[in-house]
Every structure is written in C-alpha cells, then in structure tokens.
Amino acid sequence: MTHPAPYPVKLADEITRQLGQLADHLSQLPPPQAAQVIARVLDPDAGILGSITHLVATGSMFAKDQAERGALPAEVWLALGRASNELHDITLDLDEHKDTLRHVGTQPATTAPKPPAPAPLVVRRHR
Hints:
The chain is mainly α. 67% of the residues lie in helices and 0% in strands. The chain has helices at 7-26, 31-42, 48-69, 74-95, 98-106.
C-alpha cells in the first residue's frame, strides 16, 4: 500500500506546475507586461528568485545537519551550499536591473514611428 505524498511534497509539485504555467504565459505577454512579471519574479525580497534562494539555503542547512549526523554525504551539503551561494550572487547581479525592468513595465504602449535601436548583446560584467 502506497502512502499519499505529504503536504510539502504536494506543495512543491504545485509550485513547480505553476512556475511552468507562468513561463508559458510570459512567452506570450506583450513586452511591458512581460517586464512587469520579470521584475516581480526577480525582486530579491518578495520575488520568486529570492524565495527559491531562501529555500535552497534552508535545504543547505538541513543537509549540513544531516551530513554531520552521517545521514547524508558531505558532498550533498557542499553542493547545496554552493548552489545557495550562486543563487545569492545571481540575485545580487539581477537586483541592479530591477528598476529598469519596472520602468519598462510601466511605460505606456506607443506607436513609435521609429523602432528602438537594438542593444549590443555582448556586455562586460562588473561587480
């Protein structure tokens, strides 16, 4: 007899499903609305990326405790710790662009006679 998945597992599955739906919607939104969604997703305090970063950091603390008890290999804890640190760094990198995304998301759609000039896609990264 199989046991039903506990609530947190079902919650993780539902969040994953909804993130997939959000990605599908994002690909079909007009640019201002897409920018608004991306800005909310990337918000380090109240956005999805910040929440996922917090979740991975919490998982890292759990894995550390379990590794110290011998229930998990130390490599699991180290991998989660690295992932948490990388996500944190990514959040910091993207945080500097949230105002630009918000601005794009609040601009009214206009019929410009001349399309905006394309931006170069190779940019030096600074920290």
